[in-house]
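The freezer alarm interrupted the setup, so I double-checked each line after restarting. Inputs confirmed:
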Amino acid sequence: MTSPTISFTRTEPYRPPADHVKLQAEAPISRVRRPDGRELWVLTRHEDVRAMLMDTRFSSDRRDPRHPAHMAHMGPDYKPGLIEMDPPEHTALRRSLIGEFTVSRLAAWRPRIQQMVDESIDAMLAGPAHTDLVEALSLPIPSMVISEMLGVPYTDHAFFQENSANFSRIDTTPEQKGAAVANLRGYLADLVQQKLKEPGNDLLTRQLAAGVAPEDLGPIGFLLLIAGHETTANMISLSIATLLDRREKLQALRDDPAITVGAVEELLRYFTIAEVGHQRLALADIEIGGVLIREGEVVFGLAHTANRDASVFPEPDDLDFTRLARNHLAFGFGPHQCLGQNLARLELEIVLATVLRRMPTLRLAVPFDEIPFKENGPNYGVNELQVAW
Amino acid sequence: MHLEANRDRCVGSGQCVLVDPDAFDQDDADGLVVLLRAQPHDDAGLARAREAVNVCPGRALSLAD
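Predicted 3D structure, all chains:
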């Protein structure tokens, strides 16, 4: 029997792809075919996706040519990033970075992030009463935060931010994107050299002091930049677009700002913007949910669909800011669960609370269904968000 | 019931700290879990302990008798 073909394109902003939802109801662990013909397993239940992401016999090592994200250019000298390797290699690298992302370390960033958000909103309010929120707020905030974390000098900030925006925006050409990657990689390599000469109070300096090799630190810096940049920007844009589209949700947050933390969690669950990242290669014959997955087979955990699993989140298609949604899989699960997740939460919480407080007349400048959504990218989001106030 | 934490399994995500900052912290040096209070005080504390066990991505936490 031929496996059905499924796509990973989102066509409705508020829902997972219809064929993924259908699989969850009818055949939650399925053998399917990608549009390019490659066969894989998809998991759609919350429990199964969690079990898969927990089990390190499902490999993330992209140097293995059987891994779905293996790229032909990965030769034996390729330096894999944190998301491209398995324990124990992964464990050691992750542990070297965790200290920068603990809850208490991040809490110390709160006043500085608040200041950045306030200054961006000051600039918006000082200009014309309409703008593209992606350009004015969603992209600059994560960019400013990560550049300060890495110790990018203020004089280089415009270069760093412009290149990271060009890397993240979907409307830049492949050439522009390629140039941005080359610029940023080169910049980060130089920055690491500079930190060797002039240590600062920043992540790169601390990593060097801890004995990380300079040549390993450029790729780490680049991963921290890309992993936390466009993703957070997308969540900021989607969250604000949704609140402006569904005014009763916005009102609920205004009436009780204490629910902002829960609202952020629920918005993360609801959109689950990074989905194709949950791809693994089975290194053994492994049973999941009563189905035997054989060594060498590829498995995708459809986290967005799993986050609409009614057995875990009752009335899963409701956006309910009062539900306790911490159990979602928007940041993955298991040893690879997003390293920067608590920074993303902090940025989202501060941005949402500040926008609601300081921009009481904010509204969408285009109808919600005309917003250009990123339907086909690795991360869901919006390309631009025209707003007025 | 009391909480147990396995630091070898901990991935330093800090989810337990978000659930109950009175019961959990992270080591400043390596970011791994530190149990501040293994014994939940009351039903609400027990509920938070169960939630922390549930959301822990490393399956590093457990509740034992």
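Quick read of the result. DSSP finds 16 helices and ten strands in chain A.
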